[in-house]
Structures are given as C-alpha cells and as structure tokens.
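User: Structure please.
Assistant: Input sequence and predicted structure:
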Amino acid sequence: AFMDSINKAIYVTIGFIVIQQLEGDIITPKIIGESVGIHPVYVILSIVIGAKTLGITGMLIALPVIASFRLILRYFIRGIK
C-alpha cells in the first residue's frame, strides 16, 4: 500500500491497528472464556494480574490457575450444600 500511495498506507495501518485491538481485547478473551467457562472480563484480569506478578510465566499460567480455583471453589460450595 505504501508503494501505491501514502493515503492507502495510512488506511492500511489504521485498519491493522483496529483489527488487532478487536482481536486481542474482545474476540480472543470471549472465545477462551467460553471454552473454559470463565467470563471474558476475568480472563483479561487474570492475564493482566499474572503479567504484573510473574511476567510472561504468569501470563501463561494465569488462566489455568483461575480455572482450577473456580473448580475447587465449586467443589467446596457443593460439598457445603
């Protein structure tokens, strides 16, 4: 696009940024949340908290930890009832 015209290059850049933001902030957490059974907001929060505490490793283990915590919490709540 840059070789054709500067305006096309700007449009392509803006489109790329918008698509990346939509994919990373809305679509992916929704898909992951539905497959694991966790609300997308909790998916995003767990990844952010994992990144702040343990960096890349925290980001990788954040969602499995939250899913495990959810299952354990469910088990104890059902046991109490």
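The chain has three helices and no strands.
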